[in-house]
Amino acid sequence: MTAARKAAAIATAGVVPLALTVFTAAPAAAHGSMTDPVSRVAACFQEGPEAPKSAACKALVRAGGTQPLYDWNEVNIANAAGRSKEIIPDGKLCSAGNAKYKGLDLPRTDWPAARLSAGKHTFRYRATAPHRGSFELYVTKASYDPAKPLKWSDLEQRPFAKVTDPKLVSGSYEFSGTVPARSGRHLVYSIWQRSNSPEAFYTCSDVVFGAGKSAVAPAAAAPSEKDIAAGARKSTVEHHGHGDLGGGAEGPSAMGGAAKPVAATGESLAETGGDGSGAWYAVGGAAAIALGAGTLFVAARRRAATNS
User: Fold this and answer.
1) 186-210 b/e with 16+ CB inside 10 Å = b?
2) Which tens digit of pLDDT belongs to each residue from 80-89?
3) Strand 200-209 to strand 114-115: parallel, antiparallel, or no bridges (unpaired)?
4) pTM above the 0.90 mark?
5) Which of 14, 83, 95, 247 could cross-link with 290 by S-S, CB 3.0 to 4.6 Å?
């Protein structure tokens, strides 16, 4: 093999990893949804996207089809950057202004609901892709009317629960908060703002306090791991447990199975998460290899031309 051909082969070997790295280096998006109290989208997914049982979930499918339910863990804004209240318009809080999820914004008094009581409560947020970030939970005011479109002014001004990088337990973030006293039908609104990305996720969870006529609505149930695994086949959203897995920690299995052991230090996945910068170091390394190979190729060609 001539020197020129050898150089070309080396250049190719350097360029191929670079191309592959560029396509795989972009930081993965986070995904998830509230499961205790279960979010509106997750409750309807659990009923079955193709044949939901409740009238409200049927109306959701009529409004936007079944795909929003298969993609139950993707109600997000990619560039929220802590500006949720500025960029999500009134009446579109549950969909986060995303037309794909417009059925979630339907003002109804019969959404499947979970029972909730005032006082301390442990909240769970199923994370199919864990990432560092903060959670804020808001509850509707006593004057809330579920028959009207949800506005920011319907929520209490301050979150009743706020936590940064909560522990991840068996694939779900768990954290505590003290629920204010309410009666009848209300709504818990969550914002999950990533700290290593401007992306944020949103959920609306319909809840009922106490007994009475308002408690007649269908009971909401969270998706089972079996249902999550089955539904992932028709989802357009990643379900691979990817995310910030630094510090030697391992995430939950691809289809919602048991999580692998976390690092011996006991750190949570959220706490050990990286910022995706390693991917760009990989791009730089591949680029350096390609540049060096290209330089060698040019030098070889010049020598060949001189010798001839």
Assistant:
1) bbbbbbbbbbbbebbbbbbbbbbbe
2) 999 999 999 9
3) parallel
4) no
5) 14
